Amino acid sequence: MFFLIIKRILLGLITLIIVSLITFVGTEVLPGDACTTYLEREAYGAALEACYKRLGLDIPAHERYLSWAFSVIQGDFGYSLSGQMPINEVLGPRVKNSMVLASAAIIIGIPIALILGIITALWRDKLPDITISTVTIFAMTIPEFISATLLILIVAIWLEWLPGIVIVPTDVTITELLPNIILPVIAIAMIMTAHMARMVRSSVIQVMASDYVQMAILKGVPYWKMVFKHVLPNALLPAINVVALTIAWLLGGVVVTEVVFNYPGLGRLVIESISNRDLPTVQALAIILASIYVSINLIADLLTLMLNPRLKTLQIRK
Amino acid sequence: MKNIIKLISVSLISLLVAFSSANASSGVFKLSHDLGFGKDTNLDAITKGRLFQVVIMTQNRLVRKNLDGVTSPELATDWSGNSDATEWTFNLRKGVKFHDGSDFDAEDVKYSLMRVKDPDIGSPAKKSMSSVTDIEVVDSHTVKMKLNTSFADFPLLLTDYRLRMIPSGSGDTIGQTGIGTGPFIVDKFDAEGTTILKANPDYWEGAPGLAEVHIIAIPDGEARVQALLTGQIDMNRYVPFAQKKIFDGNSKFNVSVVPTGNWRGMVMRTDTAPFDNPKVRKAVRLAVDRQELVDLVMGGAATVACDTPVAPSDQYRLNMKCGQDINGAKKLLKEAGYPNGIEMTIHVSTKEPTWPTIAEVMQQQLAKAGIKADIQMTPSKSYWKETWMKKAVAMTRWNERPADSALHEIYHSGAKWNESFYKSASFDKNLSDARGELDFNKRKKAYQNAQKTLWEESGTMIPYHVSKLVVTSSKVKNLDEVEVFSVRWHRVQVD
Fold it and tell me: How far apart are CA B88 and CA B446, in angstroms?
């Protein structure tokens, strides 16, 4: 078990190094750089040289990468290119805002997904299942930039119930933020919930069809006692990995949703820094997003290992 | 009796309310900006990252353009040039105060304008001040500007939207404070969030009609349109024409189409064959149907130009007709030694979203005259460095500037942005004559002659000047329907 954890953490670190290399090389080979983007028509001669010098772009690429990687290990992402601002300072409030958005979506989404998934599985092919399944399939297939726009159209423009886009300062407090995030949270939670509900449904159906459940039914175990005691614990274990994958997916969904709603989080920062060719910020974001992805998956794996006695014994026997 | 008293008191109160609301500043005007300069965004008008939406409301220029595009007094009350237009004396408005309480005087003018020339700041506006060698403080409210050349239209240059007056010595802090003499005072500056301006009750043109202005960062174009639709902002000056029909006929919005001096065009390098022959260049220009480009690319929202960079509203604009002339184009090509037509590659990018469309429409039009045009897409991020002024034929775009600046900066043989590498002694002479000519009609003639030369032989095809779609909430009143830099913001009201 211990070695397994160490192994997984090492693999995660290697993934992060590869991600950082790919982002670095990727931004490097694309035509144009921070200086040509910033200076536009004035990108020539002394002004361009001065810009390169100011931003340290006159140093060879591999040296820049190494010195950058060294300071990242020490927890310092350096300075943003266009802003001359420490990236750590830029990131702080953004990370918090995105976390608020994602956690709200998770807190609302997961219970709903579990309830919907269980209902559809227990009443399989009956009216509740058919209705809910149709709705979830729709919710799954509509991309978030469309559902977000539709939400704005219906709730903000036609009904005028909620503000359409988020207008708050970047360093907003959470209490100020909450009333603004209702629409973005719905947009994100919709797809996520639909995905998870489908997974929970098939997992519950599978367990319901298994021999020991059939046996329990034959032995006359009361239906609801059987569902809660024997079916759900076994059905929901695989769901942990699904939830982890969905949270990882959230990272991508959050980018699109944040841009549509003008939400001051990591996602909008990704788009802003890419269009400004702000390489250090892009790299920092790539590393942060990749670390979240890697660690969520790691935690999910370990959690399944711990909760599932079968997997535990399997490892010990090895 | 009771009723009468009630009636009188009610009418008195309502009268009082109406009276006070007519005088005091009230209402909040919300608009957006696109955070185009990211974390560099600041309130120093002469830097690259200037948030112009704020500085045009908090700071004044010496000279402004009135609604007809003619120079008129702002912080300078009147001005005069010497006989050869090399020295200009400006009398300044008295009794004007900056937001920090200090008096506006000649020292501030000298400081604000000479700062533009500071190489350490590297201001993009320094070209407007390049002819100024010295500013002399004659007395507390008079300055004399000395030029290294004759320039009859020098006051026009001072209408540049970046040449704002700030308190002497405030250069280090102006980027955050935005202090000026304008109708609004910066209350809270937050480039990435909402910047709040409050009315300046002592504004020299009278107290503003608004209590507050909120300027909100919304980087995404779609989100800006949504914000306008949901009433979170009151004005959007960047609505694409494709979205005009969302607002047309909706009583909650006012839609106006404002002509501008901004243009798109195609540059043929005059030093590269076959475009080194003026006849070939003119043939290409004759083969283009400009009205069709206006209709197809801009949905009609543009003013046809006959290759003049001078804005439709500019007093020196040369208006002429330039319909498509396929036979004329073929004839010119034949004379130039290309009886079977020519081939060319038009370089475009999505830097300007309409470039690829313009090129595609032109491709069809040029084919009729035997000109075979290929379209080559190039990366937008490096367009100005790698494509523009490098490839033989490439698209270009420019924003509005005064006639003299437009003609000088883009066509003068010594200009560093002479994108078509155009060199014409007669054109240069017309420009220098115009600068030295104090008689308006003669000066106009010289500028128009220069534009005529461009139509005959320039390397730049300018099909139109674009119009801008300005959508405002119908709550917004008294907003001048002109380009953003000439709007009189103190008059704007929001119900």
Answer: 22
CB pair distance less than 8 Å for A32 and B381: yes
In order, the DSSP letters of B234-273 are SEES---GGGHHHHTT-TTEEEEEEEEEEEEEEEE-TTST
Residues of chain B by 3-state class (helix, strand, coil), percent to 5: 35, 25, 45
Please give the Cα distance from B472 to B481 (Å, whole number). 11
CB–CB of A41 and B388 under 8 A?
yes
pLDDT digits (tens, 9 = 90+) for B269-326: 999 989 999 999 999 999 999 999 999 998 888 999 999 999 998 889 999 999 999 9
Determine, for residues B223 and A168 on separate chains, whether the beta-carbon distance falls below 8 Å.
no
The shortest C-alpha distance from B384 to chain A (Å) reads 5
Could you tell me how far CA B104 lies from the centroid of its own chain? 26
CA distance B273 to B492: 54
Mean pLDDT of B217-243: 88
Cβ atoms B469, B321 nearer than 8 A: no
Amino acid at A146: I
Closest residue of A to B389, CA-based? A41
B124, A85: Cβ pair inside 8 Å?
Answer: no
**Quick one: DSSP state of residue B197?**
E
C-alpha angle with apex A8: A7 to A14, nearest 5 degrees? 90
| Placement of tokens 């079916």 in the chain | A231
A vs B, Cβ pairs < 8 A, gives 113
Of B294, B292, B291, B266, whose CA–CA distance to B281 is shortest? B266
Question: Which chain A residues are Cβ-neighbours of B381 within 8 angstroms?
Answer: 30-33, 36-37, 277
3-class SS letters over A116-134: HHHHHHHCCCCHHHHHHHH
Tell me: ipTM over 0.85. no
List of domains in chain A: 2-73 (no CATH), 94-317 (1.10.3720.10)
Which of B127, B162, B138 has its CA nearest to residue B44? B162
- CA nearest B385 in A: which residue? A43
Cα–Cα distances (Å) from B478 to B19, B54, B161, B182, B490, in that order, read 19, 19, 21, 18, 10
Q: Which residues of B touch A (CB under 8 A)?
A: 35, 37-40, 48, 122, 124, 190, 192-194, 216, 218-220, 222-223, 226-227, 229-232, 379-386, 388, 417
Report for A12-26, B4-18, B155-169: range of highest mean pLDDT: B155-169
Q: Return left, alpha or beta for B76; rule: phi > 0 is left, psi -120 to 50 is alpha, else beta.
A: beta
**Chain B within 8 Å of A260 (Cβ-Cβ)?**
yes
Residue type (1 letter), B348:
V
Cβ pair B29, B235 in contact under 8 A = yes
- Tracing tokens 């820094």 back to the chain, one arrives at A273
Tokens of B48: 């690259």
Question: Which of B38, B122, B386 lies nearest to residue A82, judging by beta carbons?
Answer: B38
Question: Helix (H, G, I), strand (E, B), or coil: what is residue B175?
Answer: helix
Q: How far apart are CA B40 and CA B450, in angstroms?
A: 39
Q: Is the Cβ–Cβ distance between B26 and B210 less than 8 Å?
A: yes
List average pLDDT for each run of 10 residues in chain A, which is 318 residues long: 80 88 82 76 79 80 85 82 75 86 88 92 90 89 86 86 82 81 89 88 89 88 86 81 77 82 87 78 87 85 75 53
CB contact under 8 A, A40 and B384: yes
pLDDT in the model for residue B11: 53
Cβ proximity of B485 and B258 under 8 Å: no
